[in-house]
């Protein structure tokens, strides 16, 4: 039995990183799933109102990405994409956990601080997802719960899901 390949996760900080995030997203959402490039590359990409993460293979090639957006009304996990050949390694889970750790450790950031609330005596930030229907179980295994009715987003049914992430005081 061969060992799983090595991967690393990093916050996207350079123009090259951002281009790699977009390349992976276009490959998965536009080329593979048929969403329009105009819908995939949205107005948030042009702003600093998000943090993107990359997972790279041992050669340094980006094979997955996820985006964290802090809006005035919510903190949202968006654009989780893993290249098809790498989906068998649990990299979606790795990226979601990296995003959650970032949220937990950066609650004092100007864009996150307004979202901190107390639930059952713990300070938390609620992270929201608009999940595609086929991956609801994936997010459920990570602790996200369905809220509200299913809805259309970009021509496909989606389900809102949330999870409270405990923040480091």
Automatic annotation (TrEMBL):
Signal peptide start-end: none
Matches recorded under CDD domains: NAT_SF
A Gene Ontology molecular function term of the record: N-acetyltransferase activity
UniProt keyword annotations, A-Z: Transferase
One BP term from GO: UDP-N-acetylglucosamine biosynthetic process
InterPro entries: Acyl_CoA_acyltransferase, GNAT_dom, NAT_camello-type
Residue ranges annotated for the N-acetyltransferase domain, each copy included: 9-166
Pfam families: Acetyltransf_10 (PF13673)
Name of the protein: N-acetyltransferase domain-containing protein
Source taxonomy: Eukaryota, Fungi, Dikarya, Basidiomycota, Agaricomycotina
């Amino acid at each position: 039995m061969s060992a799983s390949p090595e991967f690393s996760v990093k916050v996207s900080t350079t123009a090259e990183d951002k281009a790699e995030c977009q390349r992976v997203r276009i490959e998965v959402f536009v080329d593979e799933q048929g969403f329009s490039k105009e819908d995939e590359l949205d107005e948030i990409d042009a702003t600093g109102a998000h943090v993107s993460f990359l997972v790279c293979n041992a050669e340094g090639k980006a094979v997955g990405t996820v985006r964290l957006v802090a809006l005035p009304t919510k903190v949202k996990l968006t654009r989780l994409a893993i290249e098809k050949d790498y989906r068998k390694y649990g990299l979606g889970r790795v990226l979601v956990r990296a995003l959650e750790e970032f949220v937990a450790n950066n609650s004092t950031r100007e864009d996150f601080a307004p979202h901190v609330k107390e639930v059952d005596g713990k300070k938390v930030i609620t992270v929201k997802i608009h999940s595609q229907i086929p991956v609801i179980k994936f997010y459920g295994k990570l602790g996200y719960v369905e809220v509200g009715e299913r809805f259309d987003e970009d021509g496909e049914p989606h389900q809102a899901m949330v999870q409270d992430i405990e923040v480091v005081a």
